[in-house]
From TrEMBL:
The chain crosses the membrane at residues 6-22. It comes from Deinococcus koreensis. The lineage of its organism: Bacteria, Thermotogati, Deinococcota, Deinococci, Deinococcales. GO terms for molecular function: protein transmembrane transporter activity. It is a single-pass membrane protein. Residues 86-96, 104-116 have a biased composition (Low complexity). It is found in: Cell membrane. Belongs to the TatA/E family. One of its GO terms (biological process) is protein transport by the Tat complex. The gene is tatA. Residues 43-52, 121-131 have a biased composition (Basic and acidic residues). This is Sec-independent protein translocase protein TatA.
Amino acid sequence: MPNLGPAELIVILIVALVVFGPRKLPELGKSLGAGLREFRKSTQGLREELEGSMKAAPTPPAPAPVQTISAQSVAAQSVSAQGVAAQTIHPAAAPDAPQPVAPVPSQSLIPQAAAPQPAPPRKDEADPGAG
């Protein structure tokens, strides 16, 4: 916002005096002062409310303590994971009998397509060569 010096304020007051007249100018100043006072009061209330809510906000809970794991338990988990992987890759039970596959038709059963033939010209089409 630009700073208003004394010269600018005098110009503004002269313009206001010419526009509103000497009788309305005190009323205008009074209502302007009341409006500014109300604006400052509401902004101060809003600022206090925001600061109060920021102070009253709960702090996040502390992180859970770190659990120590021994090397033996890690090794045991690794061995059990390898066992599960081995069972998944090489299952103990043989699969059921193989499923029958549908026969593939041979070339003799597939009908051969005829070579494409050009369509005869229609009577309503003009001969493009005649001109």
